[in-house]
């Protein structure tokens, strides 16, 4: 198989209209239905960051962008506030899996379809158990979902790997053998060359106060249907909560945009936190090697990547602890 060559300037970034929520959102649902980009749910701190007594708020708002030069439609709502779900585009609409709010995590799965200026929801078979902070990707007609936690405040992450056949919703979710590594939250998923990839994430364990502490992971795995899991070369650094699924480049590369490398945990003072990594990591699926691939102008975490109009949208996210952005970027891979 011939590998396409890309230079460091082979990503072209463009700003889209800013999201109508001026504070921005972390962990929103995002996907495409009937060629329209949907961004919904998510969280922010409208009054103050938590170290100043602020409370996190979950949203049920939904916003629609019907073309790259247009402005957002607002005034739409989901049935309830939700964030940290896995959301992926399908032919029938945006598939939303799990997620949660301050009190609970969900196992519900549903499709959002944008039609006749309205959001139409369709319930699908639920997950085997409640799950948020997971990662997933679509490989052909299969949806794969990995990791997460079952409830707010959990001190152990799931080591679960679930699959749903888009052609046979009625069969529900299938539990598959998990990757040969620790459970994790906020990993990065990806699809390339007929396989599902799982990168980084954070292992959870109870700290001295009983609250969850994070171990920032650098391990990587590939799942090939019919063959199973294979451990891959470690990432050069952790990339916890980087936009997911990772950006496919050509036929044999996956790009991980930024992420939290764990180097600024407990940074003081928190208001001066410099933000998360801008470094783009490039994984070559043929040579099982990593390299640095320039920098991203959108170093946002706890967000997703949405294929749309020949590019890939990064719909806002978290720029530093407790602070979000309503900046929406679309990146177009450019072949040399």
UniProtKB/TrEMBL annotation:
InterPro entries in alphabetical order: Kelch-typ_b-propeller (IPR015915), NANM (IPR056734)
Name of the protein in its database record: Galactose oxidase
């Amino acid at each position: 198989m011939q590998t396409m060559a890309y230079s460091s300037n082979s990503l072209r970034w463009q700003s889209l209209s800013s999201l109508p929520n001026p504070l921005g959102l972390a962990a929103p649902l995002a996907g495409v239905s009937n060629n329209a980009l949907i961004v919904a749910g998510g969280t922010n701190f409208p009054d103050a960051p938590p170290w100043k007594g602020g409370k996190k708020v979950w949203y049920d708002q939904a916003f629609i962008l019907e073309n790259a030069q247009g402005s957002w439609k607002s005034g739409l709502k989901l049935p309830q506030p939700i964030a940290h779900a896995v959301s992926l585009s399908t032919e029938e609409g945006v598939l939303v899996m799990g997620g949660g709010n301050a009190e609970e995590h969900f196992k519900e799965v549903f499709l959002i379809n944008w039609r006749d200026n309205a959001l139409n929801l369709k319930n699908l078979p639920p997950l085997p158990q409640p799950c948020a902070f997971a990662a997933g990707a679509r490989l052909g007609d299969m949806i794969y979902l990995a990791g997460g936690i079952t409830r707010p405040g959990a001190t152990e992450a799931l080591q679960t790997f679930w699959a749903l056949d888009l052609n046979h919703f009625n069969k529900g979710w299938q539990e598959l053998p998990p990757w040969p590594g620790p459970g994790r939250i906020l990993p990065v998923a990806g699809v390339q060359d007929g396989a599902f990839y799982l990168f980084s994430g954070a292992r959870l364990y109870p700290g001295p106060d009983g609250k969850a502490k994070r171990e920032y992971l650098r391990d990587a795995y590939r799942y090939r249907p019919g063959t199973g899991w294979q451990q891959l070369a470690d990432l050069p650094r952790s990339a916890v909560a980087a936009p997911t699924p990772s950006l496919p480049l050509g036929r044999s590369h996956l790009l991980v945009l930024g992420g939290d490398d764990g180097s600024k945990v407990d940074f003081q003072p928190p208001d001066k936190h410099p933000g998360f990594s801008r470094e783009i990591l490039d994984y070559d699926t043929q040579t099982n090697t990593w390299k640095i691939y320039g920098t991203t102008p959108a170093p946002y975490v706890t967000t997703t990547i949405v294929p749309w109009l020949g590019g890939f949208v990064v719909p806002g996210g978290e720029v530093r602890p407790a602070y979000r952005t309503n900046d929406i970027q679309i990146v177009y891979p450019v072949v040399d």
